[in-house]
Structures are given as structure tokens and as C-alpha cells.
Automatic annotation (TrEMBL):
<dbReference type="GO" id="GO:0016787">
    <property type="term" value="F:hydrolase activity"/>
</dbReference>
<dbReference type="InterPro" id="IPR023214">
    <property type="entry name" value="HAD_sf"/>
</dbReference>
<dbReference type="Pfam" id="PF00702">
    <property type="entry name" value="Hydrolase"/>
</dbReference>
<protein>
    <submittedName>
        <fullName>Putative phosphatase</fullName>
    </submittedName>
</protein>
<dbReference type="InterPro" id="IPR044999">
    <property type="entry name" value="CbbY-like"/>
</dbReference>
<dbReference type="InterPro" id="IPR036412">
    <property type="entry name" value="HAD-like_sf"/>
</dbReference>
<dbReference type="InterPro" id="IPR023198">
    <property type="entry name" value="PGP-like_dom2"/>
</dbReference>
<dbReference type="InterPro" id="IPR006439">
    <property type="entry name" value="HAD-SF_hydro_IA"/>
</dbReference>
Length: 254
């Protein structure tokens, strides 16, 4: 793929570490508000994230911990509704946390427990390069618009042209519907590439006929990325940087 016409990004775990530092935090806050004894630490959430969809994740968890299927579905629905509200509050309201001074060690868990959601390393540099080269950028996520929109606005500003969320497309990845909807709005898939972090995301993109670049994170590094064009460890991985260098060089006058 030598002609780069547009880039479509996933959000959770791709553009931002919102799974560990956002959703997990919001789930735990919702558990506490409902007076539930449940708590998902980083390792536990890493296992549960294999289950697509927050309500589905909750249902499976409640069932595995002794509730009937009917009880689990009903409780999951209530908890997930409040969790989504908390996630929206979290991404809209800066949280005041006493962080170490520059140069001092900073605990990842300290940031994550207080909902400090930010771009993954190397993301802003790539977005700046794509902007300078005039390459349109879009988003395809099955996250709810109620929290996706304020998060994108706070962290990235007005960078993305088309943003499709789970509020418009209800079929979860690995179903390809969300990517097919982006293609429909773009007009065609020629020169369009996807950036994803998970095996489910790769299958969704491939199912829509799109090439996909993987920027894996600690939660997804062991996923099955069959069908991906390139698998890397993140946006600052030299292989990903080189991939875009090759396609953006002429557009940036190099």
C-alpha cells in the first residue's frame, strides 16, 4: 500500500490507554457506588478485556461469581449505565493528583487509579505528521459517544473528520460494521489504512477489507493478529515510524 489517502484509528488501547486508566477505574467506581464487593485490578481486567463489550464483561463476571444469568444481566445493565456516566465525568473533568516532580519516578498505578487518561507515546507526533501531510484522520470505535467525544476533544482537539462510535453502530468488534460505516462515509476504501491494538480490532478491519497496522499494548500483545499488515509495540516503534515515513516522505517534501 503506497498511496495513503486516509487513516482510521481505534480509540481504546490504541490512541489512549483508556482501558486500564479509564474504563477499569470507572467500573471500580461503579462497583463502589452500588455497594458491591467487586474490584478489578490491572491483572484481572487484563483477563476480562478479552470479552467484548462492557455489559457483556460484567454479566460474565457476575455469573462467574455466583449470580444467576438473569440476575447477572439485570445487574450488569444497571452497573454499566452508571459506569458509562462515570467514564464521561472522568474524561471531562481534570482530576487533581499530586504527581512526582519532573525526573522523579511516577507510578503507573497512581495515574490509572485517578483516571489520568492521555495519548499513548508517539501518538501526537504521528497525528501532527498526518496533519502536515494533509492526510484525513477518522475514528472507528464501538465505545459510547457520550464518553468518546469529550475524550477525543480534550486529548486531541478537532483532529478527526469522521467519528463513528457504538452509539451509531451497535455491533461490537470483531464485527466489521463500524469500519464498513466509515468506508461508506469516506466513499471508498482505496488508500485507507486502519490502526488498531487488538485481535478483535484486526478481525473487524480485515473483515471490512481494510489493511490494518497493529500498535499492541500490554493487554493485547498476546492476541492473534492474523491478517494484520504490520504488528508493532506502539506508535514510537521504529517499524511503524518507518512505515509512515515511506508513505509520507513525498507529501512532506522529503
Amino acid at each position: 500500500m503506497n498511496r495513503l489517502r486516509a487513516v482510521v484509528f481505534d480509540v481504546d488501547g490504541t490512541l489512549v490507554d483508556s482501558e486500564r486508566d479509564g474504563h477499569r477505574v470507572a467500573f471500580n467506581a461503579a462497583f463502589e457506588e452500588f455497594g458491591l464487593p467487586d474490584h478489578w485490578d490491572v491483572e484481572t481486567y487484563g483477563r476480562l478485556i478479552r470479552i467484548a463489550g462492557g455489559a457483556q464483561r460484567l454479566t460474565a463476571w457476575f455469573e462467574a461469581n455466583g449470580r444467576t444469568h438473569e440476575e447477572s444481566v439485570a445487574l450488569a445493565r444497571r452497573v454499566h449505565r452508571r459506569k458509562t456516566e462515570i467514564m464521561r465525568e472522568l474524561v471531562q473533568t481534570p482530576i487533581s493528583v499530586e504527581l512526582p516532580a519532573p525526573g522523579e519516578a511516577c507510578s503507573t498505578e497512581l495515574r490509572s487509579e485517578h483516571g489520568q487518561i492521555g495519548p499513548r507515546p508517539g501518538v501526537i507526533a504521528l497525528l501532527d505528521r498526518l496533519t502536515a501531510a494533509g492526510v484525513p484522520m477518522h475514528v472507528a470505535t464501538t465505545g459510547t459517544r457520550a464518553w468518546v467525544a469529550p475524550l477525543l476533544d480534550r486529548v486531541f482537539g478537532d483532529r478527526f473528520d469522521i467519528v463513528i462510535t457504538g452509539s451509531e453502530v451497535t455491533d461490537l468488534k470483531p464485527d466489521p460494521t463500524v469500519y464498513r460505516e466509515v468506508i461508506r462515509r469516506i466513499g471508498d476504501s482505496d488508500g485507507v489504512v486502519v490502526v488498531e491494538d487488538s485481535g478483535n480490532g484486526v478481525r473487524a478491519a480485515v473483515g471490512a477489507g481494510l489493511p490494518v497496522l497493529v500498535t499492541a499494548n500490554p493487554y493485547t500483545r498476546d492476541d492473534d493478529f492474523t491478517g494484520a499488515t504490520l504488528v508493532t509495540d506502539g506508535f514510537d516503534d521504529p517499524r511503524l515510524v518507518e512505515w509512515f515515513d515511506h508513505r509520507l516522505g513525498n507529501r512532506l517534501g522529503r
